[in-house]
Every structure is written in structure tokens, then in C-alpha cells.
Amino acid sequence: MPCTWRTSQLCLLPILTVFLLPGNTSLSVLVDTKVVLACPPASLTNVLIIRWDINLRGKPSCSRAYRRDNNETSERNCTDERISWESRPDLNPALQIGPVAMTHEGYYRCEVAAQEGNFGLGYHLQVSVPPEVTLFRGSNGSIVCRAAAANPAAQISWTPQGDCDTVEQQLGNGAVTIQSTCQWEDSQVSNVSCSVSHVTGNKSLSLDLNQGIITLEFPASALLIILYVKFSLFLVILVIVGCTYFQIINDCR
């Protein structure tokens, strides 16, 4: 079947026989920002067809195309409104994504069919999500450092080193939570620091192991006074209860 706009609006014209080697690049973008993906450089006056193929994780392939001879755009299986042409494709065929979300991770490729040949440029897009870092007390005297919902996974280290157990939890959206639980046998350790390393930046939190522990100490004489006061109050209560009881008995007679 001949390749026509009606039968396959996204195919390249068969008259183009000069091809350049396709290019691919990896791109890391911070979540909630905007990114613009450019097509390979080509003179727009010589362009015949421009096509974007978008392959996102867990979703059907989406295609956006522009045909210059009739100034027509088309799309297939494209439902995410955050992915669009940056402007008019006849002026600038770049693709715009914003705000970027985890669901936008995938492979984006621009194919340009021009009179001098076919040009291709692909992007492996990874969305970086900074971790939410917390440091808190766990059970049995342990200290817990958590780097939650990060992409890619964060790394946790301790100062000083302790007896640590680190677990990794894969979240449904591709993000990862790392949790490290540590204990220190050395009683001289009074302060610990948790350092979290990530491509979006590093963070360190510290915790005073003695914080929140209050010890009350009394001299021996003070303890004796406290015991004497408590015993005196007990005798007074006992006398009042006894008198009340005997008065009730006498009234009944």
C-alpha cells in the first residue's frame, strides 16, 4: 500500500532517500518544572512532515504530526494536555511539557522529513523528585532516617556509623522510599547525623540522643521528708475515715 497522508499520516514520504543517523540523548528534569524538547535542526521551508512519537510508561504510544503542504496537524492517542506543541509547528516544532510529573517519564522522539533527508532526535526523559527527609526516634532506642518518595532513589549515610538496617520500598508511581534504622552500642555517642544524597541536592539532619530524657535526683534528706509527708497524709485520711464510720454506726443505733 502506498504511504499517503490518508492511509498513514505519520509515515515518511518514500521520495526521501537520504537519511542521517538517528540521535538519542538522556535528559533529567526536576518535577513541577517545564521542559521544551527540540526537533533536530532543519530548515522549516524544506520540511514536509514533522512527527513526535511519545512513549510513556504504562500508556499507549502517542503521536503528534504536522504536514506542511496543507498546514495540517493531527494527533493519535494523546490525552495529556500538559504535553503540547510549544507554539505553531510551522514556526517551531518543539514539544513542551509542563508542569512535569512522574507520569511523563518515557521516550520522546521527533522525526523530520525534509527535502534533503530524514532527521531524528530522541529523548530518554527522567523526572527527578527530591526526597522528603525525616529523622525520628524508633522503637527500642533506635533512630530512623527516612528519604521518602524520591526518584531516583536517595542514599543514606550516618555519622557516626552504627548498627543499621536499611530497607527500600518501591512506590506505585516509580518513586522509591529508603528507610535506615540504626542503633549505637557506644554509650558515649550523644549526637548522630543522617546524610541523604540525591541528584537534586543533599541534606543532613542531626538528633541529640539525650534530648527529651529528664532525670530527677533528690538528696537522701529530701526523700525522707517526702516519705514523712506522704505517711502523715495517709494517717490523717485513715483517722477521718474511721471517725466517719463510727459516727454512722452510732447514728444507726
TrEMBL record:
Annotated keywords: Disulfide bond, Glycoprotein, Membrane, Receptor, Signal, Transmembrane, Transmembrane helix
Cited InterPro entries: CD200R, CD80_C2-set, Ig-like_dom, Ig-like_dom_sf, Ig-like_fold, Ig_sub, Ig_V-set
Membrane topology according to the record: Single-pass type I membrane protein
Domain Ig-like residue range list: 93-206
Family: Belongs to the CD200R family.
Signal peptide: 1-26
One Gene Ontology MF term: signaling receptor activity
One Pfam family in the UniProt entry: V-set
Domain of life: Eukaryota
Cellular compartment(s): Membrane
Protein known as: Cell surface glycoprotein CD200 receptor 1
Entry's Gene Ontology BP terms: regulation of neuroinflammatory response
Cellular component GO terms, alphabetical: external side of plasma membrane
Transmembrane segments: 222-246
Coiled-coil portions: none
